[in-house]
Write a structure and sequence with these properties.
Number of helices: 10
Radius of gyration: 20 Å
Largest sheet: 6 strands, mixed
CATH topology of one domain: Nucleotidyltransferase, domain 5
Shape: globular
Order of helices and strands: EEHHEHEEHEEHEHEEEHEHEHEH
CATH class of one domain: Alpha Beta
CATH architecture of one domain: 2-Layer Sandwich
Strand order of the largest sheet: 8-4-1-2-3-14
Length: about 325
């Protein structure tokens, strides 16, 4: 069997699903996740599986790479036999936000039940993107006070395919979530002002969340193309456009708003000219890398692929823990 810890029949794993690559690493036990040892011990080795070039940004690419990443590998390289799911072997998965959609809905949700809020969120995605109501899986969370809801949607085909792929190699999917809510939870308390816009860079997406007086106001997403994340003027322009869209219908002013950057490593001068302050919440994945995310393997049918830096998939493992 492969020496990697995923091959342990009783081990749970963390999985980061990016747009080009899937990263997988062993999941710490509950006791280690809540002890000082977890903070000081070296990180466990992880590995990644690249998607074939033609399958990047596709659900087929996710399923094939996930199957390769989760399946135990025999010493002779033979594919494993299909396994029955084990209650002791599970996967905790975080996806790049490219795979889903988010929205911040404002209104009075104080008297609504969870199911009613979910249906409102579902109707929003159906109206906005023209999808069938049954084609998406929706999750919604009302902010304290009941005046705003953060909603997310994933394609049902993607969710079902990921679960079926896991079952095929004897792994139950214990948790499946998008990355942005996890990043928000870990960064909100680091902003110097109650009025702030948090901007997150992933592999191919820039997302912005506007907060006014501590309350969610708006959300915006824009595609990042090659070179965008390294161009200060381009990022400043995108951030200002995101603010205008997020602030529609609110009293927020850009000059009074703090800007938080996650995943960018650019000159702050163009950004400081348009916002009250700029705070770096985390540098880019290319700067921090992930020293424990090793062994880039190719998925089925993939030739050796050129890469310019570590994938965002490795960083997603942090949010799966």
């Amino acid at each position: 069997m492969s020496p990697w810890s995923n091959d342990s029949p009783s081990g749970s794993v963390n999985v980061g699903i990016g747009t080009r690559e899937i990263a997988v690493g062993p999941r710490a036990s509950r006791s280690l996740r809540w002890t000082h040892f977890r903070k000081t011990a070296p990180a466990s080795p992880s590995r990644s599986v690249l998607m074939p070039d033609a399958q990047r940004f596709t659900e087929t690419g996710v399923f094939d790479a996930l199957r390769a990443a989760l399946a135990p590998i025999s010493d002779d390289g033979a594919p494993p036999a299909k396994q029955a799911p084990s209650r002791n072997r599970g996967a905790y998965i975080v996806l790049d936000d490219f795979w889903g959609n988010h929205a911040i809905l404002r209104g009075d949700f104080r008297t609504l039940r969870t199911r009613e809020i979910d249906e409102i969120a579902r109707a929003h995605f159906v109206d906005t993107y023209g999808v069938d109501a049954d084609a998406i899986v929706v999750r919604a969370c009302a902010q304290r006070g009941g005046r705003a809801v953060f909603a997310s949607a994933l394609p049902r085909t993607l969710v079902g395919g990921i679960r079926e792929t896991g079952r095929g190699v004897g792994v139950d999917v214990e948790a499946l979530k998008l990355c942005l809510p996890e990043m928000l939870n870990r960064t909100l308390n680091r902003m110097p002002r109650a009025n702030a816009m948090l901007v997150f860079a992933a592999d191919a997406l820039m997302q912005a969340v506007l907060i006014e007086a501590g309350h969610w106001v708006g959300y915006d997403a824009q595609r990042l193309f090659d070179g965008d994340a390294d161009d200060p003027a381009r990022i400043a322009s995108l951030a200002e456009q995101a603010f205008e869209r997020c602030a529609e219908g609110s009293k927020a002013k850009r000059q009074d708003c703090a800007l938080g950057l996650y995943g960018f490593d650019v000159d702050h001068a163009p950004l400081q000219a348009g916002f009250a302050s700029v705070t770096v919440l985390a540098p880019s994945a290319a700067d921090t890398g992930n020293e424990t995310c090793t062994g880039n393997e190719t998925g089925a049918g993939n030739e050796a692929s050129d890469r310019t830096g570590p994938s965002f998939a490795c960083r997603l493992l942090e949010y799966a823990q």
